[in-house]
Amino acid sequence: MAGAAVALPDDTQEAGPPARSVWGQALRRLLRKRLALAALVLIGCFYFVGLFAPLLAPYDYRDTNVEELQFQGPSLAHPFGTDRIGRDLLTHVIWSARTTMIVTVATVVAGGLVLGVGLGLLAGYVGGKVDTAIMRTGEIFISLPGLPMLILINATMAPRAENGVGWLESHISSDTLQEALEARAGPEFVFLALLGALAVAGVAGLAAWLVAGEERRRGAWLTPFIAAAVVVTSLWAVQAIFATDGAADYFLIFGALSLFSWAGGARVIRSQVLAIRETEYVLAARAMGASTWRIVGSHLLPNVMPIIIVGLSAGLGGIAGSEVALTFLGVGVHEPTPSFGAMISRAASINLLEDYPHLLLAPGIVVALLIFSFNLLGDALNDVLTPRAR
To answer: Which residue has the higher pLDDT, 219 or 268?
Structure first.
């Protein structure tokens, strides 16, 4: 009896298409959503205008001309018209975009990433008393009324914020650091020397991490590099804020918003980490002696990254709206720093609205489009990155 022929795999057959990564699939799904792409373009244009406001603004936002330019309607010279004291509204819209950009980015970094993500990962992975302390503190902030507390903090802490920012600017501004470097004396020079040593250690640790094999790499080697990068980036960002009028207002607003915006995100991330830390691959990594940094960076953080992205994108609209609301109520950014809230507040009069509607249309349309774009993008990212939640 002849044996049955067994079909062997044909090595000459062409391999199928490579499997797409999770992020590649998410990007393909996002590209199919036209409304999300339109919202992303609008948000990108808004932040581009805010970033390059000093170059794009046609006039200085401090320029006034009451006699000739008071309450002028839209024209070629002033496309959005002028206000009560003859200031160009297009210039104020551009600089107000810069104000919103600074506040939203600083709040997302400080409250969303540093506090929300960091404390959420720490509470979920470490557990015990650390988890209890972080969560109880978060519950206290969640129980407080958000907007009234923001108004109270901004109204009462403004003088102290100005004094603190003045002291900080006198010690870490670019001019002060340059003078200390030239004189090679003072606490500022010591700070620069320590920062230089940290940067050298960071570069050495990064080089060692890149040269070492996959099995010998240690996440702790990257700690000096990450620390140096965070310090340098923070120093650059703070000096960029110092270069703009109203630095004290910026610090006070994003500090207050960060204080009340981290708790919700930290609770969501903690709940996910509690489930992930009991999975087989995390237990196996822990049994093999993997460090906490490696477990958090290689296993926990990638698995909660979609939730982080969705949460931050959805929260940006609320942060921008809070900044506008605080300034509208008179406890946010103060004159002469431009802000959408101040522009809307100045136009919030029936008589002005009837006679000069352009005063409210320009800032109102921009703010409405920005918040609507954030909401559209947040919904799209929620569908793309967490499809099982639909």
So the answer is: 268
